[in-house]
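Hi there, hope your week has been kind to you so far. Would you mind checking whether the C-alpha cells look sensible for this chain? I owe you a coffee for this, so here goes:
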Amino acid sequence: MKKSIFILALAAATAACNNSGRQQEEATEEITQADTIEAIVVPPDIFDKEWKLTGLNGQAIVLDTSFNAEPHLLFDKVNNRVIGNAGCNGFGANLERIGDTGIVISDIAATEMACPNLEIEQQFIEVLRKVTSYRIEGNTLTLTSENNEASAQLEKRN
C-alpha cells in the first residue's frame, strides 16, 4: 500500500511540475508576442491625404489673396505619384519611396500659366526636387532635404 501511495504521489508531483513548466512557457511566449507587437513601429502615412503648404525654408508663406489657388499636394500610393498645385500651376511628378520615411520626387511637370504667387511656386518646386525624407508630427508634414533641413511644412486638410 505504501508503494502505491508513493507512486501516486510521485506521479502527481511529476504532472504538477510538467504543468507549471508548460504554463511558464506559455506565459513567456505571450510576453514575447506582446513585446514583438509593441516593437513594430508603423511609419506615419502621407498617402491619400491632401497637404496644404504653410511654410518654405523656415518661413511662413504669404499668398496673393487675389488668386484663389493654394499650394498643396497629394501623394498617390497606388501610382507612386505626387500631384497638386504649386500656387498657380498644377503639377505632377514621380514618387520613389525609400525605406520608411525616405522619398524622392522626380520628373516634375507643371502647367505654365502666368499668375500671382509665382515666386512661391518656384521655391516650392525647387524644394520638391531636393526632398529626401519626411516626418509627420500631429497634422504637420515636414519635407526635408539631403542635409536633413526642414524645407517645406504642410498641414493636412480635413
The longest helix spans residues 2-39. Residues 1-40 form one domain. Helices lie at 2-39, 118-130.
